[in-house]
Model the fold of this input.
Amino acid sequence: MSTIARLQVDNVDRTEEQVSIRFGAVPIVLPPPLDSLMVEWIDTRRGNTLLAAPGTWLFPGRHPGKPISDSGLALQLRG
Done:
């Protein structure tokens, strides 16, 4: 599974000044408008389950407690 599909909400740090994401040890500051899009995504994301509980995955998958699959993420990005 790709690194992006396995990102968790804890990989994103939000302050009043900036939003950053960590793929490793070093955070990457997201520029506008990507920063506000990331905040909106975290606040409104839902999985494909009946419960629609977001959990800890940045990109929740079809099954509770599991991240989205690589192919599912690719479909959403193409959407």
